[in-house]
Amino acid sequence: MANREKISRDMSMAVLFGLLTCVLALRCAECGNPGNIVFILTDDQDLDLGGLTPMKKARTLIGDAGVYFSNSFTATALCCPSRSSILTGRYPHNHQVRNNSLTGNCSSPAWQKGPESQAFPVYLSKQLYQTFYGGKYLNQYGRKDVGGVSHIPPGWDQWHALVGNSKYYKFSLSVNGKEEHHGDHYDKDYLTDLIANRSLEFLDKRSPKQPFFIMLAPPAPHAPWTAAPQYENAFKDIKAPRGGSFNKPGKDKHWLLRHAKNPMSNNSIKYLDNAYRKRWQTLLSVDDLVEKVVKKLEQLQLLNSTYIFFTSDHGFHFGQFSLPTNKRQLYEFDIRVPLMVRGPGIKPNQTLKAPVLNIDLAPTFLDIAGLNLSMVNMDGQSFLYQMAPSLRNGSARPYFLVEHTGEGHPGSDPTCPKLGPGLSDCFPDCVCEDAFNNTYACVRMLSDKNLQYCEFADSESFVEVYNLTSDPHQLVNVVKKVDPALLQIMNQKLIKLQSCEGKTCWDTK
Description:
It is found in: Lysosome. The structure is a single chain. By secondary structure, this protein is of the alpha/beta class. The chain has a single domain (35-393), classed as Alkaline Phosphatase, subunit A. Helix content is 28%, strand content 17%. It has 14 helices and 20 strands. The strands form five sheets. The protein has a ten-stranded mixed sheet with strand order 7-6-5-4-8-1-9-12-2-13, sandwiched between helices. The protein is globular, with a radius of gyration of 23 Å.
């Protein structure tokens, strides 16, 4: 009798231990198998100005089936530095990618030898994930002077990466280290569809014995805004939103915004409305991509064991503070990004308000893969606990950093000689979107007070402060109106964040 009780007790303990092991190691769907991951990263897609509106399929299949993050941010509002942060889980001051140029460390030899060798796919590969990459990688990727198309970043099994910046037709891909040229035939060349179809082939051919990670980086909605033929006439009556800070003067803001022409010229407004409409048209193909991938996962009976992430590298603006079209600014329209996730353990129809950064994506992927995060050097933190609290414990960071290194040309723009040197991305009416003195760092706080505090590395040592509770469109710089003691506190937080590394970037107690 005692033997039977002991055997029964031992069996109960074994079952309990097995269940705990499954939960703690996040063995999704079937105990013993790490979660599969699909990561879709768009290019320049805004959140605040309606960027998700045209994507009905993606919202239904990902957001409604899981979670929307209402406070998702990029650590920097520029393509190459932001994508480098996504890949490494690090702030720009730690991965040292400053802008989209080779001299700014974008896909440079220093990047390849250092941060790229410690990016999240390297760790996933060690966890025996089968990995696939399709689409835009980094703006300078594929240049002959940095290894050309034969350079395949470590950790990727299948590599179908765009050479250079976003294009829809007439581009080259590095396909597993060999150059593949594409023309302008929709059926075989349109990049968004091409990477979607190749990811489906990868799913069909993968080994069912190992988990997989798929990263799809379509060009949309980045310029040149080339829609698929079936979507070229969509949204005929759509214009850029006219509310908030649209066509408002950059009063009390840093020099770059104070110089912008206000009111904007009719040509600038016509241009930005056209851009807004065309961007929505290109996003319809991304919507199709989402649908294709979800249907394939469902067909292969993998949907319930797969996490699907959807986000953008940064936001975008269309006439806010009289800046026609670009990114690179510290304001909400440029630093907020869409983020939707569905997957095992995530309840549907959730909207989560705790802040999440793009540097948090990499540690979240590794957390899903069952990796011990204390073994990796990343500035971000996993947000798996937010999506699936039954699987993880955690706490949200109280504040975070946004930083940007301004970019300009040594000489004057020949069409705008009166503005002097140091500017870039200038429109015909001499409104410039970036400059050397557009270098800034901000503390963004949400949990205690809804504040943003920014310092510029310019001759004025300019400071901007916004109370986003009373002023959600950041119309009024309140730096001269707030308590100096608060300014000092924010300055100290900023100093700490600008030198943070690893855990000190989010464990701010």
